[in-house]
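Final report, Chapter 2: Outcomes

The project's central promise was a pipeline that accepts a single protein chain and returns its three-dimensional structure in a standardized token representation, suitable for archiving and comparison. That pipeline is now operational. To close this chapter, we reproduce one record exactly as it appears in the project archive, with the input sequence first and the structure output second.
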Amino acid sequence: MNTNFPQLTNIRDAAFTQALQHKIDSKTKPLGSLGRLEALALQLGEILGTASPELKEPQLVVFAGDHGLVRRGVSAFPSDVSWQMVENFLAGGAAVSVFSRANQIALTVVDCGVNHDFLAGWPAGAERPGLRVCKVPGGEQGTADTSEQAAMTAQQCQQALQNGIDLVKTLPGNALLLGEMGIGNTSAASLLLARLAGLDIELCTGAGTGLDAEAVQRKTAILREVLARHPQAQAPLDALAALGGFEIATMVGAVLQAAHERRVIVVDGFIASSAVLVAHALQPLVLQACVFAHRSGERGHEFMLQYLGAQALLDLGLRLGEGSGAALAWPLLQAACAMLREMASFEAAGVSEKDAEKVSDPVESV
């Protein structure tokens, strides 16, 4: 499958990175005492290309879609919950709605293939606040049952990718936070992880929306059957078309475009990371722009992070999705940027630096 997705270049410049690291090391603190916040500050400076990074107009986008595989009983909830939760997002009542408001993050929901008409009853041509409709022709009700056929055609997959690319081009700001909604999409993420990382599906499959141990075993068996049905889907986009979801495919396009534009990409949990997994298979340099918000309680996420060589900022046992973890991690990114911009250096503050000739235990504060 061929598609014209944005090409990425290496954003790292050795001289700039060295200067940025020197700026961090010169702050009024013991060397390395802010731990991983220092590495985060370095990454944000590299992505935005400045030693004084400022995050502007953050956009949290919830990509939503339905999955035909749900008919096989892989989820504890019915497909109708997808559209009902989208309405909850639009009404401002979901967890991600609350967290976004608390952190002053703009929230947009994208209908990538939910089996519902969110504009029914609205005047022709009207736009609902906070909603974008980016359905793929033929996929208006969601993907096909991937235990019987490919989730989507190659053409539909390409269109979903393009929808994600085009969407990001319209968004303001320099930070994209990834969220998703779609009953059954932990199954799609598990399938993509198993196929692209070469892992056994049992390692990749978890409880999703709250399945018990016996139901997880049934889910695993169904997903093993799906993988056996699509042995030819090995290349990234072929695997995405056969095994993925419209919301994941649209998110892949969005990730590629955001990385191309050198936006900071804040990756939520398991499903959002599966979109990055596909994007990474297409363009490995995409990881330069990605900050992984948290390690999900969903079983496969730990293996996915390991495969990508990524370390998440938070580990709170979250497995809600929606972009909730991305919104919760946002203050850490703001703090890292503020540290770079505003924290004084030893020289500027008139504070004596550590005596290089003396050897002592590190201290926690000066």
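Archive annotation: The chain has 14 helices and six strands.
This record, like all others produced under the grant, will remain available to the consortium after the project formally closes.
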